[in-house]
Specification:
Length: 238
C-alpha cells in the first residue's frame, strides 16, 4: 500500500537510559524517512549518553555502557538528525507521549528547536489502542501476521511500526490516507500541558502545577501561599 504523502513522513524510535524525558538520555536512534514518491532513507546511531545505563534498562533493550562507550554523543549528531527530519512529519509508536518529548529535550540541550508544533505527528500506538488496545509486538502479530523478532531494538521497532501503519490503513477504510487528518484525529496531544514532561497544565486560562506538594493547585494560589516555592523551581533542574 502507498502512503498518501505531501511531504516526507519520518518513522522513528528511541532507546534510552530510562523514562524521564528531562533527566534520561538517548542511547539509540533509528529513523526511516518515507518520501511522497514512496522512496526511503534511513538514519541510525548508537549514542553515548554520557551517563550510566542502568542494568535493568540494558536488560530490556540490550544496550550497555560498553556498547556505547565509543559512540558519538548526541550533541555531535544533533544537527544531522534535525536536518534529516526538518521537512518531515513524524510517526512512531508511543511517540507523542515519549519519543517526541525525549527527542525535543535532547535537541533543546543542544540549542536546536525542532518546531514540533509545525509538524503532523502520528502515534501508531494511539490508532492501535483506539482500535485494538495492545502493545507493539501484539500489533505486529495482529496487523502483519508476523512475529516481531529483536523487539526493543530501534531498527526492528521502527521497521515494524512502518509496516503496522500501512496495514492499519488497509484494515480500517474509515481512516483517511492523509497525514494531517490522521495526526489530528488520532492525537493525544490535546491534554493542555505546556511542557514535554507534563509538569504544567493550562486549563480554562489558569495554570496548574502537576507534581510535588502543590500538585493540582493553581500557580496563583501557590504564589500567594508560598512564594519561595517558585524560587526553588527556578533554581532546580526542570
Amino acid at each position: 500500500m502507498k502512503l498518501n504523502l505531501t511531504r516526507p513522513l519520518a518513522f522513528f524510535d528511541l532507546e534510552t537510559t530510562g523514562l524521564d524525558v528531562v533527566k534520561d538520555k538517548i542511547v539509540e536512534i533509528s529513523i526511516l524517512k518515507i518520501f511522497p514518491d514512496q522512496s526511503r532513507k534511513t538514519l541510525y546511531y548508537l549514542v553515548n549518553p554520557t551517563i550510566p545505563i542502568p542494568k535493568e534498562v540494558s536488560a530490556i533493550h540490550g544496550i550497555t555502557d560498553e556498547r556505547v562507550k565509543d559512540a558519538p554523543k548526541f550533541s555531535q549528531i544533533a544537527a544531522e538528525i534535525a536536518e534529516f527530519i526538518r521537512e518531515a512529519d513524524l510517526a512512531g509508536y508511543n511517540s507523542n507521549r515519549f519519543d517526541i518529548p525525549m527527542l525535543t529535550e535532547e535537541m533543546l540541550r543542544c540549542g536546536i528547536d525542532l518546531y514540533i508544533e509545525n509538524k503532523n505527528n502520528i502515534d501508531i500506538q494511539t490508532i492501535f489502542h483506539t482500535k485494538e488496545k495492545r502493545d507493539l509486538s501484539a500489533a505486529y502479530q495482529f496487523y502483519c501476521e508476523k512475529e516481531l523478532t529483536n523487539a526493543h531494538t530501534a531498527e526492528a521497532d521502527t521497521e515494524a511500526t512502518y509496516e503496522i501503519f500501512k496495514a492499519q490503513l488497509l484494515r480500517y477504510p474509515d481512516i483517511i490516507n492523509d497525514v494531517a487528518y490522521i495526526s489530528k484525529t488520532y492525537s493525544m496531544n490535546s491534554s493542555g500541558h505546556l511542557d514535554n514532561s507534563k509538569r504544567i497544565l493550562k486549563k480554562d486560562n489558569q495554570y496548574y502545577l502537576c507534581f510535588g506538594k502543590y500538585k493540582d493547585m493553581r500557580f496563583q494560589d501557590i504564589f500567594e501561599k508560598d512564594k519561595g516555592y517558585f524560587k526553588w523551581m527556578y533554581n532546580a533542574d526542570f
